[in-house]
Amino acid sequence: MLSKEHTKEQHKHLAWHETMKLHELTAAQSNYLIALKMHIHCVTDPHLRGLYEEAIRCTESNLRDLLHFYSHAPMATRDKKGKTELGDMTAFYAGHLLAYLKSIICMYAGAITETATPQLRDTFVKHLNHAIKLHAQVSNFMIERGFYPAYDLHHLLENDKKNAMKALEF
Fold it and tell me: Do the beta carbons of residue 93 and residue 32 sit within 8 Å?
């Protein structure tokens, strides 16, 4: 159990693990916000369009809130500079695919723990393994092209901020 002094202690930066969750939430929501804004024009049902509009408003608000925490992220390498952004949407599409696969992996892993039918469990495991393999391929694609600087926290967080602003302005 934490002492009262420790719980009241103010830290100058976020913890590393919460910084990574901040990154994951910002990156995923930025990517999905762009997709929502791209897709809303194709939604013809008025009720569903209203739900899309609400999702866009909520996601924009979430991103604005999350961006305030980036100044509190631990930055051991603040002076490193990232590569320049490509002018096309390749990074967006790759990030969208990576977020989709991560979601599917979590969904299959959870479903496996709740499945009693052996044949269905085997099918879920097969699908999970395929998703994990594809996730690794997409992740490697992004790392090789500089879209996902997995080992450079500063660059990773700078990309998050840039992508969140791009999504808000889209």
Answer: no
Q: Is 13 left (phi over 0), alpha (psi -120 to 50) or beta?
A: beta
Cβ burial of 11 (10 Å; 0-12, 13-18, 19+) is: exposed
Q: By the 8 A CB rule, do 149 and 80 touch?
A: no
Give pLDDT tens digits for 5-25.
444 456 677 877 788 888 888
- DSSP state letter for 76: T
Distance CA 132, CA 126 (A): 10
Cut 0.70: pTM above it: no
Residue 165 in tokens: 């602003």
pLDDT tens by residue, 63-96: 899 888 888 888 654 333 333 343 567 888 888 8
Q: How far apart are CA 122 and CA 124, in angstroms?
A: 5
Q: Which of 43, 35, 170, 145 is nearest to 86 (CA)?
A: 145
Q: Give the end-to-end CA distance of the chain in Å, rounded to a whole number.
A: 46
Sequence-separated (6 or more) residues with CB below 8 Å from residue 52:
36, 39, 40, 43
CA distance 66 to 69: 6
Q: For the chain, percent helix, then strand, then coil, each to nearest 5?
A: 75, 0, 25
